[in-house]
Amino acid sequence: MILTERSFSLTFLVLVFISVIISFQYEMLSDFSVVGAGFIPRIVTGTMFLLAIVYVWKVYNGAYKENEETKPSRLIRYKQLAFLLALLICLPLIEVFGMIVTLGLFLFTSLRYIEGNNLIRSVTFSAAISVGVFLLFETWLDARLPIGIFETL
């Protein structure tokens, strides 16, 4: 259990660090000095990075003791690994397909295949969150999200 917890915490820290690096390729402010496409990713990934450092520190300093009550099942460990792999695959797809499409694909695959939700619920939730994120950033905040191959449309 301790080896699993340590490897998961370090893997999570590395993935969050990669996300932080990726978030710096987007502009913090747009041309009109309003929030740009990189503002929210930098805030979110920066916060996640700090929390991941605290998590790794707690794991390595013995805050998590091994006992039968906290030991996750094999299914939970596979779900964690599948989630991290889906996240790792989706990060470079943001440049190809754009933020909204990649978010929808990530949510759909996570809900449908990792969590085992039914098709209708997965599609509905993914579409609703994608539309909500689009309306929030493109309409309300007037911040351009990466749109990938759809830039010519």
TrEMBL record:
Membrane-spanning ranges: 7-26, 38-60, 81-107, 119-137
> Pfam families in the record, alphabetically?
TctB (PF07331)
Q: Does the keyword Disulfide bond apply?
A: no
- Tell me the keywords, alphabetical order: Membrane, Transmembrane, Transmembrane helix
What domain of life is recorded for the organism? Bacteria
Domain DUF1468 intervals: 10-146
Protein name, per record: Tripartite tricarboxylate transporter TctB family protein
Organism in which the protein naturally occurs: Salicibibacter kimchii
